[in-house]
Amino acid sequence: MVKVIDNTFSAGHKLEDVRVETHKFQYLYNDGDFYHFMNQEDYSQIQLVEAALDKPELMKEGEVVTVIINAEDNAPLSVDLPASVILEVTATEPGMKGNTATNATKPATVETGATVNVPLFINEGDKIKVDTEKGAYKERVKE
To answer: Is 119 inside any structural domain?
Structure first.
């Protein structure tokens, strides 16, 4: 995922270079205030506030994410989720028979607590692939 910031600068304005590194971290847990991650290489742990995360409601424990870190002070700058995640539907209304010809959707709660609009044929217990950029349903995953 690429972060783009739109800015206008006056002529002759200089910008300071910032060296960044990317590392793979495993999401461990959320204690209410902080999200805790473990570095996959050296097993060190970091904690981040929710504001540093794009779609924290789509992360489940054990998920591997990419953390972009400022190389000079080791401060985490952002967390990038995989392009899609597979989550289990924990609650949704049953679909109505015969109502499958339209592109109708219904809300479904997934195992992380997030709500995703899904097609009517999705039931509780189904696993679905969710696009992490849009937070939208992509497809049902067969086991």
So the answer is: yes
